[in-house]
Design brief:
alpha/beta; 8-stranded mixed β-sheet; 22 helices; disordered N terminus; disordered C terminus; binds adenosine-5'-triphosphate; binds magnesium ion
C-alpha cells in the first residue's frame, strides 16, 4: 500500500529518546503523520480515529524536537470551544518543555487579527468595530422599512448575504438573486461602512481581499506562521481555503489538515465539501494519510454507524467492549425527558443525590463507573433542549447546555458591551450612537459619558462598575444569569478589554458552555462535533426532525451525516429516542420515527430496558454546588 510521506521523512535533528511521550501512544499511521516532513499533508479518516489527537501531537512534536517554535504555529478550529480544548491538550503534552504555546484560534478570530493590523490598506477605518448579529438585523430591518425591501423576506435576505459578500471578491461568480435584494445589499454595505463596521461575514471576505491584493501582507503572516494546522477541514468554505492558499502561495507556509468527508455538516452555512477533495490541487505536492483504527467506540456502535452510512465495512474497533445501541419509544417529549433522567439515574447508581460528594459511583449497569460528565444528551434543534433541561434540573442533575443564544444577544450584555466599546474607542461615533440607542431602547436614565468612567482595572472589574452605573448589579432571573455568565467568561481576559470585546461579538451559539465540571452535556448535534462521551443520548430521532424538514428545503445527505456525527460521539452506550407527539415552538406535532432508524438491523439495537421506571413526582432540588 502506498504510504505517502514515508520516503521524504528525513532524519530528525536529535535521535528519538528511548521513550517519547509524544510518539509512544501512536499507531504507525498516526506516527507517520506526526513526523511527516514533506510538504502539505491531509489526514483523512473516520470519527474517533485520533485525527485531532494526531494534530496536537504533531504540534507538540514540532516544538519538542526544535523543528518549529510555538510562535510559528497557527492552529485553526471552527469553534472557540475546540480551540480551548486543543490548547489544553498541547499544554499537557508540552509539560513545561516550552515557554510559549502555539496560537490556536478560529478562522474568524484569525481574520480579525489580520484586519486589525493591516485593514487600513484596504480602507478599513481604524479602529473598525464589529457589528454583532442583533445590530446587523436592526440595520437590515431599517433599510427594508424605507425601501422596496418591504417586499423582501428577511430570512431570504440573510441566507443570500454570505454569497453576496463573496461576490464582491472579483473572481467570484454567484447566481444573482433578484435586483431588489442586490439593491438592499448595496445599501446595507454602505450603511455598515458608513458606521465604520464589519459584520461577521465580512471578516473572512475582507481578510481574503486583503491577502490577495497585498502579497506583502500575506508574506508577513506566512513567515510569522510557517506551520498551519486546520481541524475539520471538510467544513471549510471557499473563502477560508482562499485565505490558506494566499498564505501558502507567497510565503511558503505548510498546511497540515485533518478531516472526514462523512462528517461534513455545514453546507447550509456555506461550507463546501469539494474543498476536501480538491486539497491536493489547491496545495500541490500534498500527501494524504489514512487512519483506520477507531479508539473511541465499541464494535457494535461502529457497526451501527456503518449501516447508517451504507459502508461496506465498519471502522476497526480498538475497544474490547462491544458497547450497545438501544432505542426508546416515548409518547411525548416530556416522557422522553423523564426517560433520559431515569436512564441517567440508573446508569449512575439509582438515586439523584448519591454522587454529589463522592464524585463517582459504580453503575448498576455493565459494571461501568460513570459520572455526570460522562454523559452527553444531543438533539437536532436547540429548542428541544428546553424540556430536557427542565427535567434534568428538576431531578437535581447538574448539566451544562451549549448551543444556546450567544451572550451578546442578551439585552443586559449588549448594553454593557456597547458601553465598554464606547469607553475603549472614545473617538468612534458609531459606538456612541449604538450605546445611546441601547439606553433609549431600555428606557434608562443614565446621562453618562465615558470620560467620567474609570477605565482601568480587569475586565470583570470594569463590567461590575458598568453594572453599578446602570443599576443592573442586582439583576435576577434570566438577566442575572446572563450577567453571571458574562463575568465568569471575562475572567480569562484579565485586563485586555479590546480582546474581550472582540471575543464577545465573535462568540456564536455553538461556542458556548465550557464543558468543565462534572455535568451532563446538553447540546445540538452540530455543537457535539469533535466531542465524545461514554454514554450518548440522541433524542428526537423522528422524521421531520432528523432529517430536519420542518423548515422547508433540506439536504438529506447532510442530515444523515449529522446523525452519523451524533452516533459516533458515543464510546460505549448509545440511546436513540423518539416521541410520538412533540410540542415544538408552541405547536403539537404527531411524529413518526426517523427513517434513519430503519438502517439498523433489529439484532443490532434492542429496545431500551426501561424496567419498572415510572415518571414520578420529584422533590424540587436546588443545586448550588456548580
Ligand atoms: P472526530 O472525527 O470525531 O473529531 P478524531 O479522529 O479527531 O474524531 P480524536 O478525538 O483525536 O479522534 O480521538 C478519539 C479518541 O481516541 C480520543 O479519546 C483519543 O484520546 C483516543 N485515541 C486516539 N488515538 C489513540 C491512540 N493511538 N491510542 C489510544 N487512544 C487514542
Ligand atoms: Mg476531531
Amino acid at each position: 500500500k502506498k504510504r505517502p510521506g514515508r520516503e521524504i521523512a528525513p532524519a530528525r535533528k536529535t535521535p528519538p529518546p528511548p521513550s517519547d511521550p509524544i510518539l509512544d501512544p501512536l499507531n504507525d499511521a498516526q506516527r507517520e503523520a506526526v513526523l511527516h516532513e514533506g510538504g502539505h499533508l491531509l489526514v483523512v479518516a473516520g470519527p474517533g480515529t485520533g485525527k485531532t489527537l494526531t494534530l496536537t501531537h504533531r504540534m507538540a512534536s514540532l516544538i519538542r524536537s526544535g523543528r518549529g517554535a510555538p510562535e510559528q504555529i497557527l492552529g485553526l478550529t471552527f469553534t472557540r470551544k475546540a480551540a480551548r480544548e486543543m490548547e489544553e491538550r498541547i499544554v499537557s503534552l508540552l509539560q513545561g518543555h516550552a515557554a510559549a504555546i502555539p496560537h490556536i484560534t478560529t478562522f474568524h478570530g484569525f481574520c480579525l487579527e489580520i484586519l486589525r493590523e493591516e485593514g487600513h490598506r484596504i480602507g478599513m477605518s481604524s479602529p473598525f468595530s464589529i457589528c454583532p448579529e442583533p445590530d446587523r438585523d436592526a440595520i437590515i430591518r431599517e433599510i427594508f422599512s424605507k425601501t422596496e425591501g418591504r417586499k423582501i423576506n428577511f430570512r431570504t435576505f440573510l441566507n443570500h448575504l454570505p454569497a453576496l459578500k463573496r461576490a464582491t471578491l472579483a473572481d467570484e461568480e454567484e447566481s444573482t438573486p433578484g435586483s431588489a435584494v442586490v439593491t438592499a445589499f448595496r445599501m446595507y454595505q454602505e450603511k455598515l461602512r458608513g458606521l465604520g463596521m464589519l459584520d461577521l461575514d465580512d471578516l473572512e471576505v475582507e481578510a481574503s481581499r486583503l491577502l490577495d491584493n497585498h502579497p506583502g501582507v500575506a508574506e508577513k503572516y506566512a513567515l510569522m506562521y510557517p506551520h498551519l494546522f486546520v481541524d475539520e477541514y471538510q467544513d471549510t468554505n471557499r473563502i477560508q481555503v482562499a485565505i490558506l492558499k494566499a498564505l501558502v502561495r507567497v510565503g511558503g507556509a505548510r498546511i497540515f489538515a485533518i478531516g472526514d468527508p462523512d462528517q461534513a455538516i455545514y453546507a447550509f452555512r456555506g461550507a463546501d465539501l469539494q474543498n476536501f477533495f480538491r486539497f491536493s490541487d489547491d496545495f500541490p505536492g500534498a500527501a494524504t494519510i489514512h487512519l483506520e483504527q477507531n479508539y473511541r467506540s465499541g464494535r457494535r456502535l461502529l457497526e451501527g454507524a456503518a449501516f447508517l452510512m451504507e459502508k461496506e465495512k465498519p471502522l476497526e474497533a480498538v475497544a474490547k467492549e462491544p458497547g450497545n445501541i438501544s432505542i426508546a419509544s416515548c409518547r411525548s417529549e416530556k416522557e422522553e425527558a423523564e426517560m433520559v433522567v431515569a436512564a441517567i439515574e440508573r446508569l449512575l447508581g439509582g438515586t439523584t443525590y448519591f454522587s454529589l460528594d463522592s464524585g463517582r459511583v459504580a453503575s448498576h449497569e455493565d459494571g461501568m463507573s460513570l459520572s455526570f460528565c460522562d454523559i452527553g444528551v444531543l438533539y437536532r434543534l436547540n429548542t428541544q433542549g428546553d424540556a430536557l433541561e427542565e427535567a434534568l434540573s428538576r431531578a437535581g442533575i447538574p448539566l451544562v447546555r451549549s448551543g444556546e443564544t450567544p451572550l451578546i444577544q442578551k439585552r443586559p450584555v449588549r448594553l454593557i458591551c456597547s458601553f465598554l466599546q464606547m469607553v475603549q474607542y472614545p473617538g468612534t461615533d458609531s459606538y456612541r450612537k449604538n450605546y445611546a440607542r441601547m439606553v433609549e431602547e431600555m428606557n434608562m436614565q443614565v446621562p453618562l459619558f465615558p470620560e467620567s468612567f474609570p477605565g482601568t482595572g480587569t475586565v470583570p472589574d470594569l463590567i461590575r462598575k458598568c453594572m453599578g452605573i446602570h443599576g443592573i448589579e442586582t439583576a435576577s432571573g434570566e438577566d442575572g444569569e446572563s450577567l453571571r455568565r458574562l463575568l465568569a467568561w471575562a475572567e480569562v481576559f484579565d485586563d485586555d478589554l479590546p480582546a474581550f470585546l472582540d471575543a464577545l461579538v465573535l462568540e456564536r451559539g455553538i461556542d458556548h458552555g465550557g464543558l468543565e465540571g462534572d455535568r451532563v452535556g446538553l447540546m445540538s448535534l452540530h455543537a457535539a462535533k469533535g466531542l465524545e462521551w461514554p454514554v450518548v443520548f440522541i433524542t428526537g430521532c423522528e422524521d421531520r426532525l432528523i432529517p430536519c424538514s420542518l423548515f422547508g428545503d433540506h439536504d438529506n445527505a447532510e442530515e444523515r451525516r449529522l446523525f452519523y456525527v451524533g452516533m459516533t460521539r458515543a464510546r460505549s452506550r448509545l440511546i436513540l429516542s423518539h416521541a410520538r407527539r412533540r410540542a415544538l415552538n408552541g405547536r403539537v406535532l404527531e411524529m413518526a420515527p426517523s427513517p434513519f432508524l430503519e438502517a439498523f438491523p433489529p439484532s443490532l439495537c434492542r429496545p431500551l430496558d426501561r424496567g419498572t421506571w415510572k415518571p414520578k413526582a420529584r422533590p424540587h432540588h436546588q443545586l448550588n454546588l456548580f
